[in-house]
Amino acid sequence: MSRSMERSESGAGRCNVGTAGWPLPPPMREAFGPGASLLERYATRMTGVEINSSFYRPHQPATYARWAAAVPGGFRFSVKLPKAITHERRLAEAEPLLDDFLSQAGHLGDKLGCVLVQLPPSLALNEAQAAHFFSALRQRHEGAVVLEPRHRTWFSDAGRALLASHGIGLVRADPLPCVDAGWPLEQCTPVGGTVYYRLHGSPRMYYSAYEEPCLQTLARRMAGDARQAESVWCIFDNTAEGAATADALRLLGMLELQSHAPAAQNRK
């Protein structure tokens, strides 16, 4: 598979692997190519990134355009919706804020690969309100959108149906946001052609690295997901002590091996 993990002749969807932000811890920098900025260096190895800073503050359109120009053509950005929409407005009366956000992030052009909507743990499913919000979002944005809810009411048949009706994918998070989720995330059918893994570190969130068997299982699942989805994302958010960068590089190597396995078998 190429560096960008593009859709192959066999129909496998592209895999976007990276971290939340592009911190590049100094001990890891030798694993990356040269570049005029950390983002340029990051994009010599990674295939995608999640912009988390947009959750806390807006960015100028020129900033998004500069980021888009700094990465190769196959690289993709996922951009996190502002907390002013998800945590302060709690999805209500958010249309003006959606317009502002999308007018800014839209300057990523075709490198805008996904919009991430993360909800606070206290926000329960209100079907009418959620339907109104996602309808407003879909009127403004046709691309991939995924949701990371953290209240158990979203993990229900009603929640699944609502998301499916708007083409919104459910984030496959680790650790699970609630222990009594009604259906296993790894068995979810891709919605809107997008599968999105978001790994926060376990057992210690934001710190713990993932062990080799876990990453191997993840690589196999992603290879399977890519056979039925347009795109598959895996973002490591265990960035507090730099584990995310190493984990993402290891996973990319495993996916590369997965992509070569069928060809090697056919030659035997």
Automatic annotation (TrEMBL):
Location of region: Disordered: 1-20
Source taxon at top rank: Bacteria
Stored PANTHER family: BLR8050 PROTEIN, UNCHARACTERIZED PROTEIN YECE
Protein name: DUF72 domain-containing protein
